[in-house]
Amino acid sequence: MDRKREITYLEAIREAMQQMMRINPDVYLIGEDVAEYGGAFGVSVGMLEEFGKKRIINSPISEDALVGVATGSAITGMRPIVEIMFSDFITIAMDEIANQAAKIRYMFGGKATVPMVLRTAGGGGTGAAGQHSQSLEALVAHIPGLKVVMPSCPYDAKGLLIASIEDNNPVIFIEHKLLYKNKKYIEHVPEEKYSIPLGKGEIKRQGSHVSVVATSFMVKKAIEVAEILKEEKGIECEVIDPRTLRPLDIDLIIDSVKKTGRLVCVEEACGFGGFMGEVAAQVAEKGFDWLDAPIVRISGKNCPVPYSLVLENDMIPGHDRIKEGILSIFEKA
Amino acid sequence: MDRKREITYLEAIREAMQQMMRINPDVYLIGEDVAEYGGAFGVSVGMLEEFGKKRIINSPISEDALVGVATGSAITGMRPIVEIMFSDFITIAMDEIANQAAKIRYMFGGKATVPMVLRTAGGGGTGAAGQHSQSLEALVAHIPGLKVVMPSCPYDAKGLLIASIEDNNPVIFIEHKLLYKNKKYIEHVPEEKYSIPLGKGEIKRQGSHVSVVATSFMVKKAIEVAEILKEEKGIECEVIDPRTLRPLDIDLIIDSVKKTGRLVCVEEACGFGGFMGEVAAQVAEKGFDWLDAPIVRISGKNCPVPYSLVLENDMIPGHDRIKEGILSIFEKA
Amino acid sequence: MEKLKTKKTEVKVSDVYDIQGSFQSLPDRVKVEMLEKMYQIRHFEAETEQFIIKGQIHGTCHLYVGEEATAVGAIYALAKNDYITSTHRGHGHCIAKGADLNRMMTELLGKATGYCKGKGGSMHIADVTTGNLGANGIVGGSIDIATGAALTCKIKENGKIVACFFGDGAANRGNFHGALNMASIWDLPVIYICENNQYGMSMPVKESFNIARISERKHAYNMVGITIDGNDIVQVYNTIRHFADHCRSGKGPVLVECLTYRWKGHSKSDAQVYRTKEEVKTWIEKDPIVRYRNVLLKEGLISEKDDREIEAGVIEQLKQANKFAEESPFPDLSQVEEDVYA
Amino acid sequence: MEKLKTKKTEVKVSDVYDIQGSFQSLPDRVKVEMLEKMYQIRHFEAETEQFIIKGQIHGTCHLYVGEEATAVGAIYALAKNDYITSTHRGHGHCIAKGADLNRMMTELLGKATGYCKGKGGSMHIADVTTGNLGANGIVGGSIDIATGAALTCKIKENGKIVACFFGDGAANRGNFHGALNMASIWDLPVIYICENNQYGMSMPVKESFNIARISERKHAYNMVGITIDGNDIVQVYNTIRHFADHCRSGKGPVLVECLTYRWKGHSKSDAQVYRTKEEVKTWIEKDPIVRYRNVLLKEGLISEKDDREIEAGVIEQLKQANKFAEESPFPDLSQVEEDVYA
Ligand SMILES: Cc1ncc(C[n+]2csc(CCOP(=O)(O)OP(=O)(O)O)c2C)c(N)n1
Ligand SMILES: Cc1ncc(C[n+]2csc(CCOP(=O)(O)OP(=O)(O)O)c2C)c(N)n1
Ligand SMILES: [Mg+2]
Ligand SMILES: [Mg+2]
Predict the structure, then answer these.
(1) How far, in Å, from the CA of C17 to the mean position of ligand 1?
(2) What per-residue confidence (pLDDT) applies to D4?
(3) Choosing from B132, B209, B267, B278, which is the catalytic residue?
(4) Torsion of CA C147, C148, C149, C151, to 10 degrees
(5) Are B190 and B159 in contact (CB under 8 A)?
(6) What is the percentage of chain C residues whose pLDDT exceeds 70?
(7) At A231, which CATH number?
(8) Whole-model pTM?
(9) For the domain with range D18-324, which CATH number is right: 3.40.50.1220, 2.20.28.120, 3.40.50.970, 3.20.20.140?
(10) Angle of helix C28-53 relative to helix C288-298, nearest 10 degrees?
(11) D155 touches B at CB < 8 Å
(12) Is residue B1 one of the residues assigned to a domain?
């Protein structure tokens, strides 16, 4: 085994699916164009060849029925992985996600399980405009019964996806388009199967001056900004990646805030009503006594994702805006 | 005109629709069973007789297409009022709501308007279980392009609905089932047409010790708890009803916190990822310097709404839980 | 574009009636049991209505009275471990599938001993281990779930099939379309049973559809389909029996429309302004229980006295169920946040 | 259940071909203009492809090459102020509806002078005032919007009708079902034009459908429907012209399936493993532009030289559009949060 093997986020995701499908015949992949095409982003390229048409299933363009079908198969013994091409389209399947898959277990008094993973590509930066670029994690994170995962790097992507497929609950697994084939962020990923527990965040960079909670692609930006701030200002950011939004590892965040006294939240989603509101609110309740400064949120602007690159760059938090946001907390305190 | 006339929340809503339909031939009502039946909750009873089948339109059970059809009619010159029977079913129309109606104007570069009101009945307390009792305002409040309104009393219901119908944007208007015919909360509502601007909250009860932000039916409970706390403990709560969640009257809230130094947020929705996270986060950012205590949220428990009355009563914030929550802030501070 | 597969949508009525033998060949015991099930449904709903009136059932309930032949006829035509999915009007399917009346009634009363521990209520009773994949509060919500269960059957080659019940109103839901298309392209073993009771809440079928028969929708998926008399349990049994074999042998999904009628209002708050008393009366005259009882009397399988005893027995069962339900404890508050996650 | 309304789904092909006269009676000028429009689409897409290769169009674009006869034939059969709704593959509809090439190309380059001020891009170009209700990035997303526009036409009795374009893939979306049913029960003036280009991304129609013709779905709604050759602009024109009159006279909605083919990959990242080069070649041989040009040549409406001049003129127009687009400024950052609310 090559201990130094470095692979992309996309390859890590594919490997997780492959390994689980080899072990467990109940696992199958279903989604639009996942077979010959390998999925819109190429995540499942080659899987049709290995697993055949019975386990790599092309779906018609019916996201609602697709998720409903996966749900029905999950309660009867399968472990579907559903690929929804763009996370924007979860809106079409929102009833199946929120009113069926998420609630079946509870409404049935605990007498059913829905072991389903819904993988989907989120985020912008691709010039695909308002209906192909959203970060809609807040819509699913609010629904009890769902787990929500947003990996920020290849290592986590593999381990979290394996854990998600092994989990007996519906898991919404949101991948980031800009990470898929990103060579800048390739890293060592063990070949053997391993899993990262859902609900455990990770400190991606140690620091003592300010806690920066970020998700998905924003983790990468936050780490880069942290290096700049260290260089330029000697500020040490502690960058925390919750990895799973639900369940949320709030203790990890609070512990960091106890150390730093400052919290900055960074998310790509539109800020208003976004998930970081939850993080901020929990810290404002449970970590209040340790806070030395206002909680700052840096989020997507409150508009649909615009098409033009110049506008899109402005709408989505970039290094500059993150940097300013973090600096502002030192001015305010 | 009878200045003392007191009517229910339901009657106020009906009157707003009637008055707008009399004035403007472009306004029409469409929804499941809105005609002969008068809507599942009886809101439109009698309207078929006045306005006829052309303007009071029964829809087949196709919430997605229903909202899409309303959207298409709105961009071509009509002003539809869509009734979605239970707010739980907005999940079915989520694509039409979030990806079409909300974004059309922006994506078209400002060259279309979508003057549509989506009225729907939210909330629990009716023993209708997990798929008929939710408070899903967080799902729509997060979407730029939408306005979200949650009236808590007859007077506001009428004025806000008229403003919503007059507004040129898609407005999600969430009514509360327990308020509809509630005789306890009837109040004077002027017969003449009036409107309450969207984006303006109201202080429903003055107080100096703690700011309590509540929405919809929780406003009523918060006011009642405030009276109890005054009696029992001499605590004066300032109860703030934002009335519109988006745009949010954050200034009103911050101004109150400046006075009281304490914030409690009360919502019926499941707490995790709920709308009050946004309120708390904004105050933790903009109002931090005035906060003397942790921000407390009192929300629905993090589970689907259970069927059994005893469980449902426990899941949804009741007077006791609100009281304890408010008291806790004085212990913590 | 070529014709893709053999045209399947044409079913001759004789395909179904040829096998009248199916019902005929049932053991007498089972034929009588089917009558008992119909009585169980009828009286379960009567008791439910009483609890609603007395305020002991506080949520909404949709009664199945008048439609008994469809649930019982269809479910008796399945194998014991086949799957069913049900609807908001689900008590009938549940009882026909063999559910315990005690645990059903207890659930309606929101008690801890109910099928869902009091968490689901009328619209969510399920018993997955016996193949009942649950009622559903979302109209049409179970159509794609049923289709997914059929996918499991196909992948696992477990020999099971799925019967998916839904109303006329549900046939206009978007997921009906997506699911039936998938079932058709993948040849899934599922029988879609549309219970056309003439109304979706207040909306008459003749206003919500512009087709003469909902089963015409088979053409959109090149699926086998037929419309039958849903109040004739023998016809329902024979049809579903025939198509169960069809599905089980891998011939793909089927759409069966059962014409029937709901006697009661849609739910407790229904003033029924959308239909006439005369219309209701005509249908009550077509009582599926009376009709089936007469078949059994005529065949000499039961006597008038047997019939009265069966019904009395059912009433006694319900008395027990009520007692059990009333005496059962409410769930403990510690339960409220349990069962959210596995 | 009675037959509800007269059975409408049967259209005889002669209904359409009887009126071959419709195309024939068009002024020569218009016939030639239709060829020019086809060239505009073809060359607009060629330029777009170049911009993609050069990296100046950074998002995704879906090219309409090969399908020109459908958009031009259908839209020329409408009245000027009728409505259309378009798709993610929308440049063709937009150009046929008379959009300004400059403002279209500018939009694709994300510039401030584009149709959407650079906020929408390829998948959202709209021009509501001229009746173009917009492209849509959600497959099938415009089907219910078109239906709503038709509701407006009916309520306002404004004499307009709606042409709703969508792909074969979109015909499996749930809102297709809900919307077509509503159009049918309410007799709305809308022509649903399914552009069956044989694939939804990589999924062949023969795998995503189990019916020989998508127009068979008319039976589910008792709607008039027909399948035609979408590469024959004369046939498209005559069909839509015929049905436009049908709709305008209050006879209700229509489903028209146009058989055509997309020459290019689905979008830039498409390796096209799901189809053979030979298949593509067969369809390129059926080039709708060549076909129509030959009609005009044969009728003596244009000479070979005219044809070359028309195409050259279009190429010149595109050169201008490119220049305009390249020289236009990017939107100002102050714009980003504008236009969210009216
Ligand atoms: C998606 C959805 N829309 C609306 C409702 C409210 N509702 C409950 S039952 C019903 C009528 C259903 O009609 P049908 O499918 O014919 O079943 P029936 O009640 O006649 O048995 C409606 C509109 C719902 N529960 N779910
Ligand atoms: C609801 C939705 N699902 C999936 C996609 C991704 N997607 C874009 S185009 C396309 C294929 C559409 O096929 P069809 O409707 O036949 O149109 P065509 O591209 O062939 O013109 C898909 C799957 C989307 N944009 N919207
Ligand atoms: Mg019905
Ligand atoms: Mg296509």
Answers:
(1) 32
(2) 42
(3) B132
(4) 90
(5) no
(6) 94
(7) 3.40.50.920
(8) 0.97
(9) 3.40.50.970
(10) 150
(11) yes
(12) no
